[in-house]
Amino acid sequence: MNNSTEFTSCSREVSTLFITITSVISFVAFTGNLLVTATFFSTPSLRTSTNFYIVNMAISDIFGSCFNWLLYAVEGMLTSRTLINGHSAPILCKVGMYSRAVSQLVSVLSLVLIAFDRYIAVVFPLKEISFGMEQGRVRLTLSLFTWLIALAYGCPYILYAEVVKVNDQTFCRAVWNSKFVVTIFNGHKFSDCPGEPNYF
Predict the structure, then answer these.
(1) How far is CA 170 from CA 26, 35, 75, in A?
(2) What percentage of residues in the chain have a pLDDT greater than 70?
(3) Beta bridge partners of 175
(4) Which residues does the UniProt record annotate as the domain G-protein coupled receptors family 1 profile (predicted)?
(5) Distance between CA atoms of 110 and 100, rounded to whole angstroms?
(6) 3-state DSSP assignment of residue 94
(7) What is the pLDDT of residues 21-77, one digit of tens each?
(8) How many Cα neighbours within 13 Å face the side chain of 29?
(9) pLDDT at 13 over 70
(10) CA 120, CA 133: separation in Å to the nearest integer?
(11) Burial class of residue 159, CB neighbours in 10 A (0-12, 13-18, 19+)
(12) Is residue 150 classed as helix, strand or coil in its secondary structure?
């Protein structure tokens, strides 16, 4: 991408409204998930297997609420074009896309662990301990794997996320210039035009 590209921004009224709404949502998300996490660690009776994975998901939501601002800033929704210039925008775009992917995948994997945990508790109620789902070491290991998988999964965004302009509008998107990359990363083919980049 040419670093001399000018990045568009929203009007003052739209930016003000968007900042207000985003600030409220981010504050509620951050505060709520932080309270959930603090309550879990301060109350021993709440440290059940399911709640452990819920807290793992809450931590990922805290992570997401802190870094989603980068994408909005790059796309000109929060600041004027003079603050997000051609040198910093690509970096913020990559970090924003990567952090959002990590946060979302950790949440999804945590939900999978919760479903699996409840499946064992309901179908094999007397064997739950033998499966190890109630052991703290097993919970911690599974939660750690959700983060490791998510951190690895998001790496392509560091390589392919770019700031693009479509109809004079600025967007932070993953630009897949290779059909092979699209096929491997997404698990199936999105485009039948190998010569055209794919934007997501």
Answers:
(1) 22, 36, 5
(2) 65
(3) 199
(4) 32-200
(5) 15
(6) helix
(7) 877 888 898 999 999 999 999 998 888 888 999 999 999 999 888 887 766 666 655
(8) 19
(9) no
(10) 8
(11) exposed
(12) helix
